[in-house]
Design a protein that fits this description.
alpha+beta, twelve-stranded antiparallel beta barrel, two-stranded antiparallel ribbon, globular
Amino acid sequence: MSKGGADGVAVVAQPTQPQMTGGVPPGLEYLAQLDQIIIKQMVELLEVFTGWECKNKYKLMNSMDQQSYYAFEMSDACMRMFCGSGRGFEMHVVDNAGAEVIRIHRPFKCCAGCCWCADTDCCAQELHIEAPVGNVIGYVRQLKSGWRVRLALLDANKTHIFTLEGPCCICQAVCCRGDVDFPIFSAADPTKQVCNIAKQWNGCVKDAFTDAVNLGITFPIDLDVKLKAVLIGAAFLLDFMCFETDGDS
């Protein structure tokens, strides 16, 4: 049965205990056919004109610019205004029928964000990914580094699978007029790049007056679909860590 969801999105009630088919979480069968996802953040006019930090909304597109999924943030208004990009949230990813297929949870940590201190739990940015809801399939955790952004992508058993490496200086990612790559390497072989997340250049006007971004994720088509979902989670965390700046003042 369908019911009205947050932000006007129709959400289909999920079975009490949805079952995976062949190891693929329900609703992610289409993701198994893709080797690229483009995450397009929707511009909120209220945020542009008033500075009031709104809940983020995203369209997840395939390589032919067709919407595959839709994602919307659920978070507290006070936390959005006073904690800015460091806020805790739940990101709900639904398919085109409105059924929730992925849920991403980011806990709020008041001391998190410093690259040099990320080897301690209280200072490391992190989130976990559920598919279906209630079943954790992976984690993303910030790693200690100097200036660059480094993230560990973990499976459900917290085994380190991939490592995301950002540019040497975060200013390059924020200010560069062009695409900026965040290559993702195998944890077993740090010299082998497996996937990539790219912050795509939106043009001077959009990048100057909004914090809405486009992030392109590329991965092998035969990659485990659960790891593809973890990559989507990593892209959302990257957005908040590097590009979600309006509420931080």
